[in-house]
């Protein structure tokens, strides 16, 4: 499988998507320590700003993991991230999170549309997302992007020390409609 390397920034009508850099660490701590933002993430809780530096370094060192900051073009505030969590034979796993005050304004739809477009400029691989069944906002977002729910499962989440119910969604390049691509240019 070709691993897409998205090393350049992506600009949409309202957002700048840029690879994470150490200068992002303070704002990333605000994002990744927010309990509402991280409720459905399967990652360790960040209890100190110094932990963010280790996460950003680990992301940079892993060729299968890429993360982009989402910044508003109006004031360059970091409002979330989107990225590739893994590349395997079954496809490319994506993940995303957004600060609560920016939800329900179309930011993540705009970011994911541009992000998927850029991935599919480099590969035909299917893209998938694992979503907690209680995460209604992410479920609706993926369905709005024409993702297909393919199955549900239970997985033990070490970080939360509990079993969680997950839906797996698949996004196929051929199903990614022309209407979605038009959004990139006419949002």
TrEMBL record:
Q: According to its UniProt record, what is one Pfam family this protein matches?
A: Acetyltransf_3
Kindly list the GO molecular function terms attached to this UniProt entry: acyltransferase activity, transferring groups other than amino-acyl groups
Matching entries from SUPFAM superfamilies are given as:
Acyl-CoA N-acyltransferases (Nat) (SSF55729)
**All residue ranges annotated as the N-acetyltransferase domain in the record:** 14-145
Instruction: Tell me where on the tree of life, at the top rank, the source sits.
Output: Bacteria
Protein name per UniProt = N-acetyltransferase domain-containing protein
What is the protein's species of origin? Brochothrix campestris FSL F6-1037
